[in-house]
Amino acid sequence: MSESKSRPILQGLALIVIGLIFILGNFGVFHPDWEVAFTWMIMIMGVLFWIGFLTDRSRNFLIMPGTILVIYGVVFFLIAKYTWASIESLGPVFILAPALGLYLTYLISQRNRSILITAAVLGVISLVFLLNSVPIFKYIWPFITAGLGVYIILNPEKKIDVPGVHTDEQQ
Length: 171
What we know:
Strand content: under 5%
Largest sheet: none
Mean pLDDT: 82
Order of helices and strands: HHHHHHH
Structural class: mainly alpha
Number of strands: 0
Number of domains: 2
Radius of gyration: 22 Å
Number of helices: 7
Oligomer: single chain
Low-confidence stretches: none
């Protein structure tokens, strides 16, 4: 069977299965936990994006949404299933997911330094927020940040090269 004929069949079968699940749920045949089922649907969509990339490596634009959906699905699953998990404690993961998506895009396909820098900035912001939920760290990170600022001021000869940003000396 050619790919063009198999694709509509697979899409049609997926819709039939989804419809049957809802029909059986409406008639009380079974009572799925929709909060958990929803999280699995999100994770499966993310995995499908990754499968799409792995079957055709030229479609590197599928890495980012695949990574984000898998991570968000895991976060929603933890929140729906466990009492210790809350949106307040896991909220920074919503910043971390795009960071990981960008980092994987950088590693797997596009060795673009701008992508790596963006991933690093988002990753650091997310980790600061995650670690801020640890009581002692919320007192430590401001000192680290201020110390980094002092270091930059006291060492002006060490330039930070940011791609796409040109200083007067570079032009």
